[in-house]
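Model the whole thing, not chain by chain.
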Amino acid sequence: MANQNDAKIVKLGGRIDSNNAAKVEEEVMESLKGTTSAVILDMSDLEYISSAGLRVILRVKKSHPDLTIKEVNTEVYDILEMTGFTEMMTVEKAYRVVSVEGCEEIGRGANGTIYRIDQDNVVKVYNNADALADIKHEREVARLALILGIPTAISYDVVKVGESYGSVFELLNASSFSKILSTRPEKFDWCVEEYVNMLKKIHSTVVPEGKLPDMKETVLDWATFMQDYLPEDAGKKLLSLVNEVPHDNHMIHGDYHTKNLELQNDEVLLIDMDTLAVGHPIFELASMYNSFIGFSELDHEIIKKFQGFDFETGRAFWKKSLAAYLGTDNEKRITEVENKARIIGYTRLIRRSIRRKGLETPEGKKEIEYWKSELLDLLSKTDTLLFSRNELEIAAEKESLSEVLSFIEKHLDDAGCPAKAKMQISIAAEEIFINIANYAYAPEKGKASVKVEINENPRCVVITFMDGGKPFDPTKKTDPDISLSAEDREIGGLGIFMTKKMMDDVKYEYKDGKNILKIEKNI
Amino acid sequence: MNYPKRIDLHMHTAVSDGTDTPAEIIEKVKQAGVELFSVTDHDAIKGGAIIKSLLKAGDPAFITGIEFSCKDSEGQYHILGYNYDENHKAINDVVNRGHGYRVSKLKKRLDYLKKEFGFSFSETDEKSLFALDNPGKPHVANMMVKYGFAPDRQTAIQKYINGFHSKSEYVRPEEAIKGILDSGGIPVLAHPVYGRGDDIILGEDLEKRVKKLISFGLLGVEAFYSGFTDKMIKETLALAEKYDLFVTAGSDYHGKNKMIPIGDTNLLGTGEIPDGLAKFINKISK
């Protein structure tokens, strides 16, 4: 019997049943005489326990409330669990020991490394000492994600790997998107599509309040840390930009790169869930920017080591994914959102480099100076970190029409909108946008915005057009008399008439100097 | 003057380490909506002549190009040359010298693969490598994949070919610049911020480099480049203005060998272009 961190450890072995329970109790109580500190019952050699044995434990617990049971084998654990003992006291299982020597490393993240231990199973080995708490956390969030509809793998066992712990997952014939990208470049477009589909799915998942940490808090910490390293104005601006990002209860993965997406048979699975959080998608984009570009910006070899593909591939993957995520090919808009992501991305990289390498090492100095100069440039020209995936701001002119329509259609396709409704919505959108382009600002120029929302119960599409031009209510226009013959018919007015006919609702309001026209269509 | 909306003056064909033939690249340039282009194979000028012979009326505007890999005691530089007379002896001399260096490097590289890993290729295949205008790592890697020595090109390069290091000979930057100038061309520093490809050189270091090359006769900088951030563009444009240099825009397209699309230069296709680029276009249009 030994002391460990002031706790008294008592080892139990063999069987405890009606035959020997009294004797065991006497021995245990004897050895605990005068002990007021915590007590640990080490059950590594205990093979069997009956109800008589359980009563012994209960009496130990009564005389020594701070009781922990450790190294319990699976059979004994089942009994303790069945009888509710695991709820009454801390019971730790004895962990199966697994070696990863010679195993293929299939992933590496901030908190651990994933190895394939056999054809069907992988183990994620955690880096840190307090791994059991992390494993428990990851398992809980993975379960939460699964319940909320995100396809993921959940660990089914915790094992001991050397000095640390690992969690075991079943992952059959799976290969990561990084592996696909580096070995089968012809699958590039497919990877982008699936990667973005999953990203949209994550970001449209609402998480019950309090279930996941808020990413904004973390980013605020980074921004606060930066105050000592940036000119005062820039520091303040950074902090206020982050502060102005509203609380968002949608899920973000937090480490969404191509090693954390696995193709298993025909199913795409999201893994490495320990960074799961809630927050505005800009925080996710920042972390993606770093994974594909930021981390390797000064040393292109880094991404090859980490992802297996080269810097240009990573950059192209990021750009294409961002374009698909935003539903636009407009380079200016893509760069605008990318720049917002880079502000947070660089903040994180600078902080990381200061903490890991320090301001004085040549390597640290070089990258910190570079990221800082980029960050200052970005801060000087950015007024908000917010962006909206479903809102497009565009010049109110005829030339913008095809972009407006393809933007709307992409959102309709994502929502699985039926072909007929899609066509009707496109016709209506065209009529309205052309009206704005022709009349809102004429003869001056101006901007318009288009926002697409998909609502449930009843499922419908709502598209909002906004412009700052002359007040004009198209719904007021009297309907043309369509009973008249072609010669007698008026030329105008047909567009808005068709819109009203084909949509389920058309609403106009003039507010804060803006024309706001909403069309609604049930789908 | 109406300037071309989309410009890409930096791409590689299969003559060097790209994968598209000159004919394929013309098609892709058209698809990408690029109105002015050049091909800039490493140390090789053959692609330009082929493209000229294939262009038809109404096709995008084309100028001859090249990218020399240069080195001196202070570092490595990629020097682009534009609108030179491809029949001029000066540029052909530099190209031939560069080609000679590459061939001797290829020989050493093949010896290394044979000695270290036992990888050897048939005589015909080796001959085909030496017959290339610009044999480099990707060509050897493709051959290794063909023989099954490596599962894919990436692995071949990373695991095997990159193990080979030798003191290779390079064309010096002043030689390249002189060769381009003497044959009537415009020497331009490629991706100035990235040095030879993946460094980041900014501020005083960048200015020092550019000043030295100007003393050799450099006339322009590639301020618009696929991997550049807004700030890198700004800084390069400031240098161009300060030293009165031409400005160019290029993607560094390599076909399937690098994931860079044609026309990806960070010069937005709005038709608005900076002075240095306008001057360059005026110069080559004369």
